[in-house]
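User: Can you predict the 3D structure for this chain?
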Amino acid sequence: MKLPPGLSAPPNSVCKLERSLYGLKQASQQWNHKLCSVLKASGYTQSRADHSLFTKGSSTAFTALLVYVDDLVLAGNDMKEIERVKALLDAKFKIKDLGVLKYVLGFEVARSSQGILLYQRKYAIDFLDEFGLLNAKPTSTPMNYTAPMSKDAGSPLSDLTPYRRLIGSLLYLTNTRPDISFAVNKLSQYLDCATDIHFKAGLHILKYIKGAPARGILFSTASDLYLTGYSDSDWGTCPDTRRSVSGFCFFLGSSIVSWKSRKQLTVACSFAEAEYRALALATCEGRWLTYILRDLQVPLHRPITLFCDNQSAIHIASNPVADILTKSLASGPFAKIHCKLGMHDIHVPSLREADRRESSS
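Assistant: Here is the predicted structure, written as structure tokens:
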């Protein structure tokens, strides 16, 4: 290291580095600050919805850069800009260009005329090999629906480390496997009290993955740019907390782009309330997706369509009667809601009767 200013030492002296910069607590923050400043100075805009996304665009060209620590992914339709920013980053940080994206952070990318497939085959196979299930018989579903899961089921494990490693790896696999999201979310609730039943259920998920380790998400080239969401819930099914499960997924055209399965934070008192909470969670996700798509210069020409299979939750979401208590309304909507409040004017009939008498005379 170069000597800091003010330190007296013989000429051409250097400091011996006793500790790696990667071991310093502030190293990651300083690295991110330096990278962000370089990209912003080069004309890139940092997304407010996802701080790891940087974009630069014009009426005819667009470039996006995604950052994960010191791994960067570049995409866009302006090859001159892509080459320019790669040269800039190489001059500043001495990067290594790996060429066309094929593998990054455990994700594999395959391209064809039908679209781009994102999958984790190598990650899944290494995972199966670690737990000795490469030759196991595949299962048809990720979880046995005839065996309800609870905290007290089975005998407690003496060592929780293998179970936690199993669930942690499965959680990362859900990034391209929405079909196992519910099962993994269910088992992740027992990390501090896992039993042999829970561990067996985790291995059951691995056997399901064994049947199709290369299954992933296809981003179709023929997909339209309409965002559609689906929301659902399961009321009070957790035998330990009696809390409900929320689930949603969003499609951009025919391609799934977001999904989640999670237990609700509070106990719902009715099926309609559970559905409404799931609907609210999906709405927040839909809004976030619109911000991301706006940063990627993907225009949405119509509102998001969000489907829910519970009429009571839909009526709660529309909430027409309470509008009169929360906002100013035009005469038409005001009169429509006003008549539903159960209010009456006892003088109106007599006045109308008097008017009829005067008109008849």
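The chain has a mean pLDDT of 85. The chain has four domains: 1-99, 101-222, 224-318, 323-360.
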